[in-house]
Amino acid sequence: MSLVVSGEILAGVLIVLVLTALLYIFVRRRLLSSGAPLMLCALRPHGGTQYRLGLLRFSGNALEWFTLVGPSPRPARTWERPLLELGPPRPPASPIAGLPEAVTVECRYRTDTFEVALAPAAYTAMRSWLESSPPGFNVNVA
Q1: Residue-averaged pLDDT of the chain
Q2: CA nearest to 32, candidates 80, 71, 83
Q3: Torsion angle of C-alpha atoms 129, 133, 136, 139, degrees rounded to 10
Q4: What secondary structure, in 3-state letters, does the chain show?
Q5: 48 and 72 assigned to the same domain
Q6: Does the residue 87 lie in any domain?
Q7: Residues 45 and 105 in one domain
Q8: What global pTM score does this model have?
Q9: Structure confidence at residue 142 (pLDDT)
């Protein structure tokens, strides 16, 4: 086999791999967003120095965080609505890659603290979701 044919085969295999990865990312995001709002955010554990980009989803009674380009369709973190507390929004100390004009929010879940960085509109949506009552909770309140 000549060098040209080997190069063409290698290029073809690389193109197929790249297209397969892009298709998987597209299908995963479509599956994650089905039925619930999904937004881009970054997460930093307490004491951490770097933010990890991910996707935040509001489900009925939980807030779920998924890695941005991970293999798993399951959330990496899940926080129950009644146990999650949000602090006030602040501008980030340094720019966050992938999130221009983001605000950071210190969060507390039970004894765990962490920071979430997201767009101001996404913060408003998250705050509204957290402060509204969960579906089916105190339905008969007049």
Answers
A1: 87
A2: 71
A3: -140
A4: CCHHHHHHHHHHHHHHHHHHHHHHHHHHHHHHHCCCCEEEEEEEECCCCCCEEEEEEECCCEEEEEECCCCCCCCCEEEEHHHEEEEEEECCCCCCCCCCCCEEEEEEECCEEEEEEECHHHHHHHHHHHHCCCCCCCCCCC
A5: yes
A6: yes
A7: yes
A8: 0.77
A9: 47
Q: Which residues contact 120 (CB under 8 A, 6 or more apart)?
A: 89, 101, 102, 103
> What's residue 98's pLDDT?
85
- Token pair recorded at residue 128: 């509204």
- State the pLDDT confidence band at 13, using cuts at 50, 70 and 90: very high
In terms of residue numbers, what domain contains 103? Answer: 36-131
Domain count for the chain, please give it. 2
